[in-house]
């Protein structure tokens, strides 16, 4: 069974949304375990709303993701957790998020 219900044709667009967010806002990535990562972001006004919208839509189709967003001024922390059986999916997402 596919863990994601997002239609296949829409997946490249969602991936591009994450890539754009990561390129614009990720400052540091911490892998806290195989099923938990923390992304530190900062960016333009509206960043929190963008992250909340994207993670809410992702949770709708991939319910195994648990996103927690905390803010400190202009900085935002995004904790991403998955069940252990989806650790490879989290690892792939983290690999895309690591700043160049």
Any chance you could write out the topology, listing elements then pairs?
Blueprint lengths: L10 H15 E8 L2 E7 L4 H15 L4 E7 L2 E7 L5 H11 L3
Antiparallel strand pairs: 1-2, 2-4, 3-4
Structural commentary:
This protein is 41% helix and 29% strand. The model has no long low-confidence stretch (mean pLDDT 91). It has one domain: Cell Cycle, Chain A (2-Layer Sandwich), CATH 3.30.1070. The protein has helices at residues 11-25, 47-61, 87-97; strands at residues 26-33, 36-42, 66-72, 75-81. With 100 residues, it is of the alpha+beta class. The protein is built from three helices and four strands; from the N terminus they run H-E-E-H-E-E-H. The relative contact order is 0.21. Strand 3 and strand 4 form a beta hairpin. Strands 1-2-4-3 form a four-stranded antiparallel beta sheet. The longest helix has 15 residues, at 11-25. The chain is globular and about 40 Å long. The chain starts with 10 loop residues before the first helix and ends with a helix.
Quick description:
The chain is of the alpha+beta class. It is built from 3 helices and 4 strands. It has helices at about 10-25, 45-60, 85-95; strands at about 25-35, 35-40, 65-70, 75-80.
């Amino acid at each position: 069974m596919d863990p994601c219900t997002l239609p296949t044709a829409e997946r490249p667009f969602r991936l591009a949304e994450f890539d754009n967010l990561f390129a614009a806002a990720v400052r540091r990535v911490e892998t806290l375990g195989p099923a938990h990562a923390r992304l530190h972001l900062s960016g333009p006004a509206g960043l929190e709303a963008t992250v909340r919208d994207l993670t809410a839509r992702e949770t709708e189709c991939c319910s195994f993701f648990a996103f927690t967003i905390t803010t400190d001024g202009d900085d935002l922390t995004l904790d991403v957790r998955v069940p252990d059986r989806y650790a490879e999916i989290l690892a792939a997402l983290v690999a895309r998020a690591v700043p160049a």
